[in-house]
Amino acid sequence: RMEWALSPRALYRIARSLVAARAFKRWTPRMLTEFDRVACFGAQDVAWLNAHGVRDCRYFPTPVIDPLGDDWAERRRRHPRPAKPRLLMGGHLKGLPTIAGLHCFADEMLPALEARLGADGFEVHLVGRNTGFDRLPPGLARKLDRPSVKFRGYVEDITPEFLAADALLVPTPINFANRVRINVAFSYAA
C-alpha cells in the first residue's frame, strides 16, 4: 500500500504529466513519420513506434562504457570492503520510478533484509540528486527512518560506490522502460 500526501500543486503536476503523455502518444508517431530513419534506446519503444506507423525504426542498445577495464576483478578485490554488507540504490526523488521503487523497497525488501540480517546488519546507500531524507513523502520517510538506510545524495564519482557495493538494488514495481542503472552496475561487476 502506497501512502501519498498530495498537495494541490502535486495534483496539478500529475494531471499535466498525464495530458502530456497522452499528447506524446498521439503526436510522436506523426512527427517521426517524416524521417527516413529513427533510432531508439528502448526495444519496447521501437515496437510501439513500428506498430504506430513509424517506418525503419531501429533499436540500439544503450551505450555503457567499461569503466574498470580488463583488470576489473583485481580492482574490486583491492577496493576497501565495508564492515557490513552494502547495498546501493540510486535515483532522483522527483522521478516516479524512483519513488515507486522506494515504496516497494520500504514495504517489502527492507523488512525482509532486517529479518534476515538484523536491523543494523547491513547498509543501504541511496545516491543521486535530490535524495535527501527531507525530500521524501512523510509516510515513506517514516518507513525508511532506519539505521540501515543512508541518504548520501549526489556523489561526484560513482566508481567507489559501485566498488564498495555488494549489490545494486533496483526495485521496479511499475513497467517503465529499461533501467540503465542495471546495465551500468554490470559494467562495474556489481
Describe this structure in words.
This protein has 190 residues and is an alpha/beta fold. The protein has 7 helices and 6 strands. It has helices at 8-32, 43-51, 72-78, 96-117, 138-144, 159-164, 180-187, and strands at 38-40, 57-59, 86-90, 123-127, 149-153, 167-168. A 4-stranded parallel β-sheet has the order 5-4-3-6. The longest helix is centred in the N-terminal third of the chain and has 25 residues, at 8-32. The chain starts with 7 loop residues before the first helix and ends with a helix. The model has no long low-confidence stretch (mean pLDDT 82).
Keywords:
190 residues; alpha/beta; four-stranded parallel β-sheet; two-stranded parallel ribbon; 12% strand
Secondary structure elements and pairings:
Elements: H1 8-32, E1 38-40, H2 43-51, E2 57-59, H3 72-78, E3 86-90, H4 96-117, E4 123-127, H5 138-144, E5 149-153, H6 159-164, E6 167-168, H7 180-187
Parallel strand pairs: 1-2, 3-4, 3-6, 4-5
Unreliable sequence segments:
none
Lateral arrangement of strands in the main beta sheet: 5-4-3-6
Estimate the mean pLDDT confidence: 82
Number of strands: 6
Q: Tell me the structural class.
A: alpha/beta
How far apart lie the N and C ends?
Answer: 30 Å
**Cα-atom radius of gyration:** 20 Å
Biggest sheet architecture: 4 strands, parallel
Query: From N to C, what is the helix and strand string?
Result: HEHEHEHEHEHEH
